[in-house]
Write the C-alpha cells for this entry.
Amino acid sequence: MSEDVTLEVGDSAYPGRLNTAEEPSERGILVVPGAGHGPFGDVFLRFSRAAAEEGHHVAWFETWMSPGDLENKTDEDFRTELEAGVDFLRSRGCSTVTVVAKSFGGRVALEHLPKDVDRLVLWAPAVLAEDAENVPDEAWEHLPSVTPGEFDVDVPTRIFQGDDDNIPVDSAERIAEGLPEGELVVLPDEDHSFLRDHKRVIEETMAFLPE
C-alpha cells in the first residue's frame, strides 16, 4: 500500500510518499534522491515497492523540486531535512531506519547522516575521493573532492558504483575504505542512472537491509 504524506520541517512542508508493509513492521527506509532525479519514478519507485513487499516502510520526500532549489539550501537545511525524515519513520513505529541515497543525495547523507540511523546505502554518491584515478576532467569540475575518512559515518554502509559512470570505481572504493564499516559493490556496465540492471541494484540493496 502507499499513501501521500507530508514532511514538516520548521515552517516548510514537503510532499512525499509512504509505501507500507502489509504486516506490522518496525523496519523503515528513508530514500533520498539525487539533484535531478525522482523521487517518484525510475529505480526509486521499483525499489520502494519491492522493499514494502518484503516488510519495510519506505518514505521519500520531495524536499527539492529541481537542481535550482538546491542553491538556496544550507548545510543546516540538509541536516534538519534528513533528521525530519528519520523522525517521520520513527513516528510510524520504525525502530530501525536505513537511509538509501542516490547521487547528490548520497553526498548529503555522507555529510549529514543523523546519529540514530542504523544503516546507509549509497547509490553512486556524487563525490570524488581526492587522488582518485581515472577521473574525467569534467567530473572534477562539477563534483566536490573529499578526503576519505573525513565523514562522521560509523554505521554499516554499502556503496553501489557502476563502472560506466563518470564517477570512477576507484573513487567509490577509496570512500568505502575510509568508512569504518564500508563496502563497495561494483556494477558492471552500469551508468549513473541505475536502470540498466536495476534488478541487481534492488536485490543487493535488499540483502543489506536489517531483517
Q: What stands out?
A: The CA atoms of residues 7 and 13 lie 6 Å apart. Strands lie at 2-9, 12-19, 27-32, 57-61, 96-102, 119-123, 128-129, 145-146, 157-162, 182-187.
